[in-house]
Fold this sequence. Notes:
This protein has 259 residues and is of the alpha+beta class. Helices cover 21% and strands 19% of the residues. The chain has 5 helices and 13 strands. The strands form 4 sheets. Strands 4, 6, 9, 10, 11, 12 and 13 form a 7-stranded mixed β-sheet that branches. The chain has a two-stranded antiparallel sheet with strand order 1-2. The protein starts with 24 loop residues before the first strand and ends in a 9-residue tail after the last helix.
Amino acid sequence: MALAAGCAFHGPRPPSPAESGDPVTLPAAALKHAAAPDLEPAHPEGGEVDLVAMYPYPLDDIPRIIPPVGRVHCPEVELVTYRGDIIRYHKPVTVYVGFRDKLRLFEQIVRDTAIEVYGRPPSRIHHLGSYYCRRIRAWPTYISEHGLGNAIDVAGFDFDWVSAKQAPDTPRKFRRAFQVRLDKHWDATSGTGAVHARFLHLLAERVIARYDLFRVMLGPAEDGHDNHFHFDVAPWRSVNIFEGDEELDAESDDGILGP
Length: 259
């Protein structure tokens, strides 16, 4: 079983489906980051999108509120062991069966972005954990999405050695084996580190732009997330990867914040 390693939430209090029947909406201004050329925005220009209505998810109606103390009893959901179809994970992940489809789409975006930047895809996705039955540390009355198998913490990517024949469009320096990690490369500004930073930033932009993918996306701008991306499909939207993301989300009147 893969365990989430240290992914704590420090942002605003997450709303609960049990507390509000309001639709989850996001202002158009929150599309701060450009989508990939082949990705279309998931809402009309200048409008708002009801994410739950447009992209319903089987876990949306599961209550997340729990007693603030005592043993955590996570809801029973169908969990599967997943190794990755397009790109392998360095260790298998245990996730909700529906989250597996989200990971497949994520792997596709990773592959395409890496080919654009390096001329080849990574060999493995390095993660810090998936399923782990626990409460949100900063908000103990809420189950973590990890407790539903509905989240993953991605720390980086491994690239194995490839030959010129296998990757003819890849510069020689990137045919060797190397690793890309958020904690080392997110803020890099020179040399190969800057290339890795471009890859990570471009990947984050494209993931954020896909409203049919994850709803909560946390990264280096969020306290405690300088070494990984946290992705989940909670019934609200919160984006805090680049500086300023959280403020954009806060422009919504519907309080769509939380892990």
